[in-house]
Amino acid sequence: MRIATAMKGLHYVLHAPQGDTYADLLFTMIERNDKRPPVTYTTFQARDLGGDTAELFKNAVRNAYERFQPDAMIVGASCTAELIQDDPGGLARALNLPIPVVALELPAYQRKENWGASETFYQLVRALAGARTPPVGFERHACQPTQRPSCNLLGPTALGFRHRDDVQEIKNLLDRLGVQVKVIAPLGASPSDLARLGEADFNVVLYPEIAMQAARWLERTFKQPFVTTVPIGVGATTDFISEVVRVAGIETAAVASNSSRLSWYSRSVDSTYLTGKRVFVFGDATHAVAAARIAQTELGFKVVGLGTYSREFAREVREAAKLYGVEALITDDYLEVESSVAALQPELVLGTQMERHIAKRLGIPCAVISAPVHVQDFPARYSPQMGFEGANVIFDTFVHPLMMGLEEHLLGLFRDDHEFHDEAAPSHLSATGAAKQVSVPESSQPPMIVLPSSLAAWEAEAERELSKIPFFVRGKARRNTERFAKERGLATITIETLYDAKAHFSR
Amino acid sequence: MNGVPTACAASAADVERVVLRERGQREVFCGLTGIVWLHRKIQDAFFLVVGSRTCAHLIQSAAGVMIFAEPRFATAIIDERDLAGLADANAELDRVVHELLQRRPDIKLLFLVGSCPSEVIKLDLARAAARLSMRLSPRVRVLSYSGSGIETTFTQGEDACLAALVPELPQEGPNSERSLIIVGSLADVVEDQLQRMLRSLGIHPVRYLPPRRAGDLPPVGPRALFLLAQPFLAETARALEERGATRLAAPFPLGVEGTTAWLRAAAAAFGVDAARFEAVTAPARERARKALVPYRNELHGRGIFFFPDSQLEVPLARFVSSELGMKLVEVGTPYLHRAHLAEEMALLPREVLISEGQDVERQIDRCLAASPDLVVCGLGLANPLEAQGFTTKWSIELIFTPIQGYEQAADLAELFARPLLRRTLLVA
Questions:
Q1: Is residue A352 a contact partner of residue A281, using CB atoms and an 8 Å limit?
Q2: Closest residue to A20, CB basis, from B54, B378, B384
Q3: In chain A, pLDDT over 90 holds for what percent of residues?
Q4: Confidence (pTM)
């Protein structure tokens, strides 16, 4: 649906029960689309199951064609319709519509959303661009120096995390490099645009989760090389430029240089307090890997956890995790992510909306870096993640939730100040902000840090001393001290144990 | 997609009313959505959906983003291994339930909620619930119902849930006094107001279904009378009647007139005399009527179009037409329960087009052609209609806001007035 909704002139007929239409509101509400997604649902009900659901589907396809007059159609079955095995592809073919009809087989019980979007895009590209497949043995000519090199931007979809602005930013960047963008797909593309994908000199894969499969096919079929560096962050954008320059065969004189403020802001003394901040990163593979690189090498944070829900890209994330000496967390179970965050006690969480909830529950600052998205992830202002402007946006996004440098010190110095106390939120955030929301609502369980009974008991005095440690490092101090006591078989934790542990772990 | 409009008689007493019946694409929620409010209402209940990733996604996007506490609902996801053999699915379900209850010892009532895929593969959740209940009683009671889209539309999920509770209600004692059960989820604040009003009328005991705690199920039997607080409870009412309880026919407690008629039905059944009824209700009625005046001035004569959503459409239409003077263009409802809505239908203007079911494309065509001043519709349609210049009211807000009773009458009117007022405020 994210593919169909991103495109123009395409209609999707989905064999699905009543209720699945809720998907429409993800687009009309979260992304504030001013049009309904181009999707017709058969909305079959129990009474239809005894009858002819196949006929229902054929009528839906026929009616949708007549009403919307699309240039191409895709047909498929939702999780429930898959079970009743009506074969939407065969049924649609039998109607002999005068437009291309692409049947999708998306096994909902094995695969997940990004795989479905990738497969849908690939099938569409194959069906529409495939009609112009060059003869066997076709060789692409190298770009002529006199000619402007051209490329396609592949991967942006509806409901994508900042795809709208990323596309603009990268288009401008390529323009400065002298590269012409022919087709952007699927976002804003029509079926006829997909048909001419083969005309460009090369492809740029902005979102591998969506477009890698299609790009590989285009490379095989049209001998189009593709650029795989995802330009998120200053370093990655610079790498991206080098790769484009190489693939497009551009004279290096025209290369755009780093115009981002991130590098300078990060070097400015105020940012010293960012040094070594412990960060937990989770998201789709592309954004998680990019965020970890920025956090560690461009902001001077320390990546203590890195993970993704994109199993298809687990290998890439595991490799990135090795760079930071951490074990990659590959899971789609938010409870597993939550217990990992609770155990690591990071000072900042970079994640999806799910991690934002987790961080909120645990009282840890958080910034959102990846889909799944929320209405807040579609800001009115221009705010790309990619390119040099994207790096500026990311600097603000990552740094804003944190306590400012001096404030952190003051909090340590004057612990009992009535304004600078444990529950005080960073003063530049609203008074009703983060700290208030930490309070656990009635129905909720306490954070799931299950302390085994074998742990040492805290003496009251030691507990009081612990409470003097600023709250944002207190969890770590408690954990370290308990580990220290356990390793030494201590039954009680005294003030001395606390400071022994501090000395031990500070080495 | 056989959108065949047929005319039919709405009820024997109302022979001439024409109802447009549609059977095309329905742009509505499935019954799983009811979990969003039911899990807040019954505070020690947990709802475990047995469904696909799509179900989990619906529940997460419909509710997860709104609720920051660890919610008392979850999805046990059916995957390809479960599809291979039913024995596995049952063992898997037992394991999930076991883990869940270990983590949430506060749960007293667990609902296994069926979904489209669980219905289609014929996973017998009733049997699973019985098996688990046997093992877990008396600590936890396990029940099941279906919230699947192939069987339930949006609020019918609550109907299915409450109907599943009815067999669990204790039998009233042999010498028990007459009791009143208010049926249907109401906001706690509304429940408290109605409770005070009924007490002043001398009606007691008054009990609620669903109760706030799973242990407070109201006793039922031939001495029990019940009043529906919501218009979407067909199955629940049938199940209560089977256990001997009697339904008091009444309009629904929306607006001043609806609330008065609803209370009057209870008063009549309990033999409250007219003077006392007048004395108890008059001050609240007067206050509510006064509060409605500015909204009536604002909304009088404006055309309103209801897309089908919650089955609240007919009572809402009666309220906006009778108490606010709005012009009803079309009243769409997913399902028209002719018996439960008989009193409401009698209060609707005769010429109103009522449509039952949906063919969303054709309905949008009718809406565009009629160009009403206000369109009440679901979230999937609202922004696209706004973009075409229509003023819309999200119907889901009518479910998530306390709107019943005297004190909420003006709040209800305000919900319809706000979008129109907002239009006049925005100049850029």
A1: no
A2: B54
A3: 50
A4: 0.83
